[in-house]
Amino acid sequence: MTRRGTLDRRNFVTAAVLGAGGVATAPAASAQIATAAPGTLAPRRLPGTSTTDGGVGLRIAAHVAAARYADIDADSIRDAKLRLIDVIGCAIGGLRGEGGAAAAAVIGGTGGGPASVLGTGQRAAPRDAAMANALLARTFDFEVMTVVVDGTQVPSHHAPTTVMSALAMAEAQRADGKTFLTAMLVGDDLAARTLAASGIDFNDGWDGVPLHATMASAAIAARLLKLDAAATRHALGMAVDQIGGTVQSIWDGASAWKVQQGNSARNGILAAEMASAGWSGMADPLLSPSGLYAQFTPGCARPELLTKNLGRDWHGEVYFKPWPSCAANHPAIECALALRAKNRIDPAVIDAIRVRVAPHVLKLFIAKPLQEGPSPHSQANFNIRFACATALLRGDLTLEDYEATRRLDPALASLIDRITLEPLPAGGKGVIVEVRTVDGRTITEALPGKPRGYPDVAGSTRAQIEAKFHKQVAYAGTVSATAATAILQRIDGIDREPDMAAFARLLADTLRFPETKA
């Protein structure tokens, strides 16, 4: 078995997530990593010294240190505020999530500090607060995702890390709103560029969050610590040395994949703090012989994306998820909802359901059988049968559907048992949901393209993003409608905030985990 496959993550995962032939392709990453004959291990580049001038890493570090709010266009500021709304909304919804309070107690109960641990009323070191808060925002896998850089669209999960890293550091440094937004955008842009340029192979097993969000967090922290270009480069280098985390917990139905979101925030901030204290990291974090691309991916497929229009184009995540489910399930959810709505089908008359997807989707974790543990939410979140059956049964998929009473509903279990997954016909694209009724009728719905929420299809409006925010407030049950409105108003004017500690205090005073019953 070869160590490095030939199917890169863009082609393997993007097709599942986007559901169509709209797969962004990129040159094979063969310039840096040689391919191997079948049955052998692909050779790595031998370790060696980085380029003496720091390479592209120094150019990026100089940009991080020098970026100015005045250079950021109005659309990018608007989009950053929308991401901020979405991530904070997901943190609010996450207050009722599986294991959230316990994680916050473990991570944030470190004895005080200058940053707020949301949901607890406690304070901690910025790196610990950022970790706890990023994990909280990822609780239901509901947050904005997916980057588009120079036409290359790739699934991603950066925003919980970048938002919460910027918030914790800005609170600790008493930065103003413009400084906060600049740092957050610097991190979002770096994460988007490094991912879009990557030739990461999903079959390698690395989770993309730590690979690309850790350096983003380091850039944010370096910016807010006012590090110069040299120290920022050291921070980025040490961030690469903090990378770790695989997709195995998803395959095994465990909850540790959420911890990786928090670790990316914590480790990035730690790297910047160490650089601030005089420590040094690898000279070229990205393209050195044992840097990010050589060590964790098959290579840098599109290195030009790392610096193309750097400082002029600002990239961030763009798909505001309409359903709290792995995005690879979204094409099937949308298709099932359309079938249900058009045909006014009664789930009780469904005899069998066939979901036809691209052949490679059958090899993803969403296609494995649904089990109950060890993390019931993780099992259901990454399961296309659960997603499709829930959509057909209830006409939606919401946070409430992960509650035990709904998740274990016999009617849902019966529908799940009637679902079979099959490959699309030759030449087929997207997803097809086919329902056979007890009276012998066959009803079919196809989605040959991407889900509507993608910006190049229909996108999400400000009203839809705010509606999603308010639904999560209602679900949490611990945040008043008045407080929720106050949070949205403060986000609208975040660029006029004189001290981000005041905004963080609003969140800290408002967000509380529900009280547990004795």
Helix content: 40-55%
Strand percentage lies at 5-15%
| Low confidence ranges | 1-10, 20-41
Please state the structural category: alpha+beta
Compressed to H and E, one letter per element, the order equals: HHHHEEHEEHHHHHHHHEHHHHEEEHHH
User: Average pLDDT value?
Assistant: 90
Distance between the termini: 52 Å
**Major sheet characteristics:** 4 strands, mixed
Contiguous helical run count: 20
Q: Strands of the biggest beta sheet: in what spatial order?
A: 6-5-7-8
CA-atom Rg in angstroms: 22 Å
The best one-word shape is: globular
Q: Would you count the extended β strands for me?
A: 8
Protein name: MmgE/PrpD family protein
Family: Belongs to the PrpD family.
Organism: Sphingomonas floccifaciens
Keywords: Signal
Provide tags for this entry.
518 residues, disordered N terminus, two-stranded antiparallel ribbon, 4-stranded mixed sheet, alpha+beta
